[in-house]
Amino acid sequence: xxxLLWAVFSALSLLIVLFFGFSQRATLTQAYKSEAIRExxxxxxxxxxxxxSDVPPEFDGNKSMYLRILSTSYDVxxxxxxxxxxxxxxxxxxxxxxxxxxxxxxxxxxxxxxxxKLSESDTNSVLYESNEEYVYGSKxxxxxxxxxxxxxxxxxxxxxxxxxxxxxxxxxxVFIFILAFAxxxxxxxxxxxxxxxxxxxxQRLAQGDFSVDFRGSxxxxxxxxxxxxxxxxxxxxxxxxxxxxxxxxxxxxxxxxPLTMIKAYASMILEISGENREKREKHAQVIVDxxxxxxxxxxxxxxxxxxxxxxxxLKFSDVDMSxxxxxxxxxxxxxxxxxxxxxxxxxxxxxxxxxxxxxxGQVLYNLIGNAVNYTGEDKRVFISLKKTSDTVFRxxxxxxxxxxxxxxxxxxxxxxxxxxxxxxxxxxxxxxxxSIVKTVLxxxxxxxxxxxxxxxxxxxxxxxxxxxxxx
Length: 471
Hints:
Blueprint: H1 2-51, H2 63-74, E1 77-81, E2 87-89, H3 107-120, E3 125-130, E4 133-142, E5 145-154, H4 156-206, H5 221-271, H6 277-309, E6 316-320, H7 321-330, H8 333-339, E7 342-347, E8 352-356, H9 357-374, E9 380-387, E10 392-399, H10 433-444, E11 447-452, E12 458-465
Parallel strand pairs: 7-9
Antiparallel strand pairs: 1-2, 1-5, 3-4, 4-5, 6-8, 9-10, 10-12, 11-12
């Protein structure tokens, strides 16, 4: 980018100089020509009146001398030509001892052009460009015969001025280009400096250094906003990195625990309870339970990985959430009979939505199981499913546990949350339940959330889009 900006600034400066130089040269040249034409027309008319009048007495009838003086005074060439282009005046030599000057060109060809111009004009005089000069020509009388006045103004000065301007323009262009080259180098370095700094900091961030601060010198609102955005991304990456490490640590611990138990009880069977059937069956049951727990953990890790990676497509269908919720609740009946849990329900009939039935079943099971794990000593869990509007119905599950602090609320969906608080856990789980809930619901595009107050329990909810009731 540095070299690109440098090249663009330099090229732009050069183009501006060239454009300005050429336009100024063309403008001034045209202005000079216009002024020369106007001046020649005015001088030509004055000279025409002079040559058609009597020669002033001081010239003693020497018309050639008179024309020479007029030519010098008006800074033009003056000739009086005959019908065939012969020079009538001035006559040469004009004074004794003078050499006859060479005529600027062949007037026999010029008289043809002059006559043609006069024939095309509605006036007795014309002004045109010929033979590197501007010409004022008119038809006059000399000694009772037709003659032609030729007044020429050389373009040599115009061309010399134009060439001089061109030379100066080249020198100016070279100077300005060198200056622009240096200035653009400095400006490009100044403009790209914050990007270079951010690139270096981004490389440090990519290497795992989350202490980098993208805010630096104030280079304008846009750079400040970019720095703030990158700092926000850094913070999110830092949180993700922390959660990943925490997740790996907790999952590793949960892998290790059942494996340790399995190994320990297998050893006990071999060494202690091999001949005692009652103890052997008890120890074998522990091995089976821990193997089931280990299998559940692996299944949940694979499940969340497949859902987040998009490898598993959702299979949408019309789902009767009223009957499906009741079906999920039936799986918790054993807790009512064996541990005295109470499930207080309020479920409206005929509430349908569009979704993946299997995945939504996982969501409901995880949310209800989470409430069971965290509810209070009264062992009460409240489940409701009812319409909140003509197009939406809400599933909500509330526990009476310790609740969640406001600081923890934004994190519970992404962290290995069950490690944060000690609790009794009658429902087997891996601690990845809320992460699975979040991933599935985000894939569906459903609105969900949690409301909680410390000491008063938590309420998890999902808003489902309502389909028409099926017949």
